[in-house]
Amino acid sequence: MMRLAVLGASGHGKVVADAAELAGWQGVCFFDDAWPGLTMNGHWPVVGSSAELLDSLEEYDGVVVGIGDNQIRRQKLRDLDAAGASVVSVIHPAAKVSPYVKLGRGVVVFANAVINADVVVGPGAIINTGSVIEHDCHVGECSHISPNATLAGGVILGQQVWIGANACVKQLISIGDEVVVGMGSVVLQNVVSGMVVAGNPAKPL
What we know:
The protein is α/β, with parallel strands linked by helices. The chain is about 15% helix and about 30% strand. The protein is built from three helices and 24 strands. β1 (about 5), α1 (about 10-20) and β2 form a beta-alpha-beta unit. It is globular. The N and C termini lie far apart (about 50 Å).
């Protein structure tokens, strides 16, 4: 039995656990600092805190972070790396991922997402339900591509970028670190680090 520990008993974590089971993982359970007050996350047990996970890594074949917040997810990944955890990626069987994609550790890819040839996805990124990452894109570490968002070819995202649901980014656009793109936005120009943009066309808020 391939046992998977999910760190972070969130709603996002439920989708990670569900995708993991559909991808063949068994014995899926959660660790969360709300334990022992929190003992279940949907259909899955919460069996300990993050500290207890770090003390029991040898009991699991893989660990993945189930936290949607980019900054927190990045820190948890670093904690797991420092402890020597076997951080794995989870890919829903209904996702379409080209064999020529490079996925970093701890990436999650949900149902009906499409990632095309020569895309690089950095560690800890979330490629959410129904999103499309076209050829030659680069998705930075711990970025989040929300449901039904689209990156056209050659888009470059920095670290910890959040692309909102149904947003579209024009081909060859560069977006800096820690940018937030509002849901439904259309990005037609480069965006510098730290900006929040929204609208059609997307403008700084």
